[in-house]
Amino acid sequence: MRFSFLAMLALLVCQQASAAARIEHWLAASGARVYFVNTPALPMLDVRVVFDAGSARDGDQYGLAALTMALFGDSSGPWTADQVAEQFEAVGAVFGNGVSEDMAWLSLRSLNENALFDKAFATFKQVVAHPAFAAADFQREKNLMLASLQQRQETPGAVASEAYRKALYRDHPYGHLSEGRPETVAALELPQLQDFYRRFYTTANAIVVIVGDADRRRAERIADDLLADLPRGEKAPELPEVVLPVASSESHVDFPSSQTHVLSGMPGVARKEADYFPLYVGNHILGGGNLVSRLFNEVREKRGLAYSASSQFNPMYRPGPFTMGLQTRNDQTKQAVEVMNSTLRDFIASGPSDAELQAAKRNITGGFAMRVDTNGKLLEYATMIGFYQQPLDYLDTFSAKVEAVSAAEIGDAFRRRVKPELFQTVTVGGG
Predict the structure, then answer these.
(1) 196 lies in which domain range?
(2) CATH code of 43's domain
(3) Nearest to 424 by CA among 339, 348, 312, 325
(4) Whole-structure pTM value
(5) Given 114, 122, 324, 431, which residue has the most CB atoms within 10 angstroms?
(6) 222 with 256, same domain?
(7) What is the chain's pLDDT, residue by residue, as a tens digit (431 residues)?
(8) Does residue 235 fall inside a structural domain?
């Protein structure tokens, strides 16, 4: 009953507009950074602890960060995996975790009533600070990852993503997908996961994000208590700089499919860089605006070469990929790629029209409130702001920064940052 009530609360509409989502920041007793958003409209609390322990920390053991994270929520201290799940369920709480290239995180969503939250939080704290890393859990999670990786090899889109990432980043820590590869995951042993946990799951390498119905004093207690059993440790070392490709390349992977998956691009922009907003608005016009973008219009609407065509920047701690992508019939691949590339070249050369720019701004700013209207969405934004140390008023100033972007700034940013002569293009399909 309680779980159903929590799920219902999580789906209720609009809690906070971006202007009301004031992000507070302080240092916990351990020295870890804490980010807090008070949203009193619903009696809920979201608590997340984030570690600089993403797949970029795998070294040559691809999949290490992901497999380590997979064991959280299994056995913990004296509890079995079933007992951990039962303790969350008994108070209607939801446990979540995940890994990206840059970060690893564990989250708790709970009703904020003291008796319920305290029980959920005690379980969460145990899971974070005392994972058992039991041999049986390790083998089960490893087998599940291997099965998932095998299935991925049978999917052309997944094969394309892996080959594309390698083409862009080569031997850089971003050069592999977080899930790893079958051969690297198969080689992982339990002591490697335990060493990874001891090295990266420390307070010096963590931030805490809290969103929900609590005052500052309670949020401070939650953050300090959550981290109390973790060692201080050391901050993870800086990731190496991304080296751009020296020339363009094209590669094809034969795959028994009637459609060809196409990915093309280069390392684009880091999260902290000043070019972010001109590139973001410009990409909305080029290929990020779905049905109203140039790529969609040229590839789909005018020529019917693909069901959709899009582009996106994926900013990370170091420059993440700028990617154009589409799926097309095998016999149309060459034409579709040519149209995609010519559309990009025209956009770089001429920039957006005034009408395109104004439409993009209306679309982005008009829909922004819906992107921060729940605790869950605010949690994601606060995590990004905290981990990448963005300004605390990021949400308040987002629309103004979008409105301030000019066509000249878009053209300048694209000419400097998007160079078709360095694009890596990967196609996966038949023919």
Answers:
(1) 2-227
(2) 3.30.830.10
(3) 325
(4) 0.93
(5) 324
(6) no
(7) 344 444 444 444 333 334 457 999 999 999 999 999 999 989 999 999 999 999 999 999 999 999 999 999 899 988 999 999 999 999 999 999 999 999 999 999 999 999 999 999 999 999 999 999 999 999 999 999 999 999 999 999 999 999 999 999 999 999 999 999 999 999 999 999 999 999 999 999 999 999 999 999 999 999 999 999 999 999 999 999 999 999 999 999 999 999 999 999 999 999 999 999 999 999 999 999 878 899 999 999 999 999 999 999 999 999 999 999 999 999 999 999 999 999 999 999 999 999 999 999 999 999 888 888 899 999 999 999 999 999 999 999 999 999 999 999 999 999 999 999 999 999 999 96
(8) no
Sign of CA dihedral 277, 280, 285, 286: positive
77: left (phi over 0), alpha (psi -120 to 50) or beta: left
Distance CA 70, CA 273 (A): 32
Tokens standing for 99? Answer: 């890994």
Neighbours of 98 (CB within 10 A): 13
- Rounded to the nearest 5°, which phi and psi values hold at 162? -65, -45
Is residue 222 in some structural domain?
Answer: yes
**Residue 190 identity (one-letter amino acid):** L
